[in-house]
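Need a sequence for this fold. Nothing fancy.
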């Protein structure tokens, strides 16, 4: 696959705000990015000590994780918020005042809540896909819950990389175009499709419309063992507008998907 790579800067700073009203300014620009391309980055939400503490908690609880990729060091825990040892990492995102203020503005002041779609991955590859319900789980999404023409969106993925990273790639605007959810091949860009490479620093939070097509690192990145002793970690969760049919449908469908994941990975 050879796609056109667009590496334009894709983040707005928040920790350097000094002017009155600057928070509103950064939110407006981030909201425009999110609506147009399906993703934006909030810079410097968490400091170094918070990131280091999160890494320590995760690495000290690796026994909770499952290997779901060919690479031995690749680990995954779906629904990590269920475990007391890791629950504080979930509220780190869902209770952060800047993140909440931003998301609430995105959904025009309505309440938001988490939907149970949380993951922590360690050295884990991720091919092209959408975080919507796919395969046979797609039946939980009907035409009323999944509106491809709603630019503001209603369910969003929060991505917290615990190291600097440029592995995330997205197809800009893909959240606005109807895509079959039978399997993930429909989310793969072709050679004529523009692809954005999203650079983040540890402590940043990427916020992505859940309808957006995206991918992470290929399996070859971790197969060499380069990251075995200094693993690359991603914490993610999803939040949605409480009044949205998509929020409700994703929560119900994801519950069944999580139960199946647990059965496959006892």
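Here you go.
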């Amino acid at each position: 696959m050879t796609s056109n790579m667009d590496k334009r800067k894709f983040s707005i700073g928040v920790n350097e705000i000094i002017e009155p009203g600057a928070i509103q300014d950064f939110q407006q620009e981030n909201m425009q990015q999110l609506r147009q391309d399906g993703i934006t980055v909030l810079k410097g939400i968490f400091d170094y000590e918070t990131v280091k503490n999160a890494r320590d908690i995760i690495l000290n609880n690796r026994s909770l994780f499952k290997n779901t990729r060919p690479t031995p060091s690749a680990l995954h825990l779906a629904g990590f918020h269920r475990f007391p040892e890791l629950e504080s990492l979930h509220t780190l995102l869902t209770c952060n005042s800047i993140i909440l203020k931003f998301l609430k503005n995105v959904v025009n002041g309505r309440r938001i809540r988490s939907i149970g779609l949380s993951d922590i991955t360690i050295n884990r590859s991720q091919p092209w896909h959408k975080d919507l319900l796919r395969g046979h789980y797609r039946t939980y999404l009907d035409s009323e819950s999944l509106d491809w023409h709603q630019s503001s969106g209603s369910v969003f993925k929060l991505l917290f990389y615990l190291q600097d990273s440029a592995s995330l790639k997205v197809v800009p605007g893909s959240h606005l175009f109807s895509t079959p959810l039978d399997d993930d091949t429909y989310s793969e860009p072709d050679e004529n499709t523009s692809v954005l490479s999203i650079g983040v620093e540890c402590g940043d939070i990427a916020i992505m419309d859940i309808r957006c097509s995206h991918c992470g690192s290929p399996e070859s990145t971790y197969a060499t063992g380069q990251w075995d002793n200094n693993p690359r970690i991603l914490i993610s969760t999803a939040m949605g507008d409480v009044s949205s049919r998509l929020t409700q449908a994703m929560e119900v469908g994801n519950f069944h998907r999580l139960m199946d994941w647990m059965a496959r990975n006892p």
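For context: The CA atoms of residues 167 and 216 lie 5 Å apart.
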